[in-house]
Each structure stands twice: as C-alpha cells, then as structure tokens.
Amino acid sequence: MASNFGAESTTDDVLDGVNLKGKRILVTGASAGLGIETARALAARGALVVGAARDLDKAKRATEGVRAAAANGGGLELVQLDLASLASVRKCADALVAAGKPFDAIIANAGVMACPKGKTSDGFETQFGTNHLGHFVFVNKLVPLLKPGARIINLSSAGHRFADVDLDDPNFERTEYHPFVSYGRSKTANILFSVGLDRRLKSRDIRSAAVHPGGIQTELGRHLTPELIAMIMPAGPASFKFKTIPQGSATSVWSAVVAPASAMGGQYCEDCHVAEVTNDPASRQGVRSYALDPARADALWAKSEQMVGERFSFG
C-alpha cells in the first residue's frame, strides 16, 4: 500500500488495497460533489455508507453511481438531513441512535459557501448555523454510536484564514456582513470543533480532525460572484490550480481510514498530510494558530451549547 500521498492523490490512490468490508461510515452532503465521490470510494472498498442529504430525491438520482460502484459487501443508505434546521438535525440523529447501528467514522462533508446574508430556520446566520451548529448538534448526538477506534472528520477550508470565530456576535447582528468573513468564521469553527471533540473523546479511542479538500469546482461555489472570485483569486481563476473531485475527496478518506490516529487526532489536514501551523497572511497553505487553540475550542463549545440549547458531555 502506497503511503506517500499529496495534492494530486485521488481517493482511489489513497484507498488502493484498503479493505473496508464491515465498516459503517456516515457522510453528510451525499447529493453532490465531494460527498458523492467520498461515498463512492468508500462503498467500492466494502463500506456500508449512510449518506445524509437535504433533498432525498436529488440524492437518489445523484448516487446511482455509488450503488453501481459498491463492491465487497459495500452499499449505500440515504437519510434526510437539513443542517439548517435543528428540528431536522435532531430527528435524523434520534432515528439513527434509535436504530442502534454503530459507526466507524463520520465525515461531516456538507456545507454552504459565501452565500448572501440569511438565517437558518432557527434564526442563526446561514453559514455559521449550517456549517457549524448543524453539525455540532448532529455529530454530538451520534457519539454514542461511535465504536472505539472511530474517527470524526469535519470538512473545513483554507477559507478559515479569512476570519476567526466571533463569539460575541456570531449572527452578524452588530457586525457588517461579508460572505467570506462569514464563511471564514464557520470554517474556523469546523476546526475548533474538531479540536474540542478530539480532546473530549480520545480517552475513548475516538479521534477527530478537520480537513481542507483544496480548491474544487463544485456546486459549493454557486454563490460566487466575479467580485468574490477576485477577492480569493486576485490574479484570476486561470492562475489557480483546481483539484478534481477525486483529488478533493482524497484527504477526507485519508483522514478517516488511512492516516495514523496518533497523527491526525486534533489536527487540520490538507493534501493528505497534517498541515503545519502558519500565521503568514500570504500563505494559502497551513492552518492559522487561532484555529487550533484549545481554549478557543472550549469557548466555542460553550457558546454553541448556549445557542442550540443543548449540552453535550462524554463521561
């Protein structure tokens, strides 16, 4: 089995020779882009994938290839999950817990990016509410189903460098809204959530990490205007090397089933390796130190519990 992976590695490269028969893995956002490819790659190696999606009809059509690729006992089951509604989040999580079937990994892949200012059904700012708070409740409620040795992977982004979380004004009630500031806050929250989860669960042999998939052209970019594109690509899109979807999904599956647990736990991963910490404002690689701050992670955890009205502790 090859072990030297990088930015151009694909899911098939990373999972070459890996047997996932009997493994059960949950993937959110299994109706487009990275979610479909992540599910396909896992099911093709024998994993039983539970794919969560807001629009089940769309997901059924989009995942025909996942079912066709399933091998060695692998398969796909779809469940309805709207991360912008805590009622939907709790309904889905409660049904999975009631079914009692354990998981070997959760890949929190779903999200929105740079959308106009709006609110979730619970009144949270759309990006923070969907990308962070929805997964915060969903993943925490599923912890009882995680086996020893399980992993939780939260998809973040290099976009976390646009902003740290703002725990005093998470819903932009007093701050001027900017799509990428909001996105940056939510992606930093994904990393801090991973840090918080890993600290709370590693004594139970459950580890968590955040992942940057890289720049990929998927439905996630539906809200990008020419002005926003110019902000993140000052030299223009032609100067930016996009990844393919299989390359973008590679770090997710690497972190979830291939990387040594002792290496990936509590970390931010990119290009199939653990990223270095850098506060260089010009760098598009690496992770900002504020996103790995344990005290910041605990403060976000407490604020998130307050916002969703539910406490999570794992004794």
Question: How is the secondary structure organized here?
Answer:
Blueprint: H1 11-14, E1 24-28, H2 33-43, E2 48-53, H3 56-62, H4 64-69, E3 75-80, H5 86-99, E4 103-108, H6 126-142, E5 146-155, H7 179-201, E6 207-212, H8 226-232, H9 245-258, H10 261-264, E7 268-270, E8 273-274, H11 294-308
Parallel strand pairs: 1-2, 1-4, 2-3, 4-5, 5-6, 6-7
Antiparallel strand pairs: 7-8
Descriptive keywords:
Rossmann fold, alpha/beta, 8 strands, 315 residues
Would you tell me the structural class of the helices and strands?
A: alpha/beta
End-to-end Cα distance, whole Å, is 37 Å
Give Rg in angstroms. Answer: 18 Å
Percentage of residues in helical conformation: 25-40%
N-to-C series of helices and strands = HEHEHHEHEHEHEHHHEEH
Q: In total, how many beta strands? A: 8
Query: Average pLDDT across residues?
Result: 93
Give the strand content.
Answer: 5-15%
Give the total of domains. Answer: 1
**Biggest sheet record:** 8 strands, mixed
CATH class descriptor: Alpha Beta
Strand arrangement, largest sheet? 3-2-1-4-5-6-7-8
Topology-level CATH name? Rossmann fold
What is the overall shape?
Answer: globular
pLDDT under 50 segments (min length 5)?
none
| Number of helices, counting only DSSP H or I runs of 4 residues or more | 11
CATH architecture: 3-Layer(aba) Sandwich
